[in-house]
Amino acid sequence: MTADIAQVDKILQELWDKDVKAWNKWWVPIFRRFASDLIFDAKLRRGQIVLDVGTGTGVAAIEAAKRVRPGGIVFGIDRSSPMLKLAEATKPRMAAKNLYYLVMDADHMLFQDEFFDGIVSNCRISYASFPRTICEILRVLCKGGTFALNDWHLIEVPVHRKFGEILQQYRTDRPSEKLRILRASLSTYERTGNRFASPEVLPDELKRAGFSETTSRRRKYRIRLDGLQQYLDMWLRRAALQQELVELSRVQRSRLLAELRSGLKSFERGGRFIMDWDVNFIRAKKPGQD
Predict the structure, then answer these.
(1) Is residue 123 within 8 Å of 60, Cβ to Cβ?
(2) What is the spatial distance between Cα 240 and Cα 221, in angstroms, rounded to a whole number?
(3) Which partner for 145 in 55, 141, 156, 290 could form a disulfide, CB atoms 3.0-4.6 Å apart?
């Protein structure tokens, strides 16, 4: 079953809205590390006007707001009102005066041409509308301005890959219509992302859109969690996984959890749960000078 890309985009947005609390609790501390390096790569300066695309709860936007003070302004845009509501509620006091969140589609931005000195995106550009989004980013970026983004793939993170392999063995082979559509959407999105987000392909995509001076690098992170249960909570509290679990019998859920605890035990060391996580960072410039 293959899902239409517009349908995929809609379903993933619904999941994103449902995942606000889980995302903020379990994933934000990890993505904050990625955001710090992303903002470093963007080489932002005091007084600049900056855009964070797909800001979520504002992880990268907050880092950018610190970098451009005094005199600079940061806008964080996202389609998810629940995410931005949490971002606004948890915005640190120091960023309150130069950081603004807006509900907005990245593929149709309500900003004038060449408005931003720099643009960043911390693992959050939707591949469902990737070409249009990149063109919009180029449009609103000043000549000579920098665009920095990063991304990672599930299969490239060993522990995530192992988790997926175990889940695949236990998930129901008689899914409801809702679950069939969800699975097809996630599969379609993954294939689309694999086509665009490769560190070998993405710089070429950016050049094709009109960017120049593209550079890429891969950073290796070691993430330490308090234990295996924390890792399981990260995944099993997500909306997509909740639907998979709901459609398993109590016995099947117990077997799945037992297999996950057994199969992921090798990632525990000294009472901590260790994840080695590679992230691709891309930096590009818009040709010309103001």
Answers:
(1) no
(2) 26
(3) 141
Which tokens belong to 109? 């931005």
Phi, psi of 274 (to 5 degrees): -110, 130
SS3 call for 137: helix
DSSP H or E run through 189: helix 177-196
Task: Pull the structure tokens for residue 170.
Answer: 């236990």
Q: pLDDT of 99-158, one tens digit each?
A: 999 999 999 999 999 999 999 999 888 877 888 999 999 999 999 999 999 988 888 899
Instruction: Output the pLDDT for position 197.
Output: 65
- Per DSSP, the residues of 213-240 read EEEEEEEEEEEEES-HHHHHHHHHTSHH
The correct CATH number of 5-285 out of 3.30.360.10, 3.50.50.60, 2.130.10.10, 3.40.50.150 is 3.40.50.150
Where along the chain do its domains lie? Answer: 5-285
The two three-digit tokens of residue 174, written as one number = 């008689």
d(CA 218, CA 283): 12
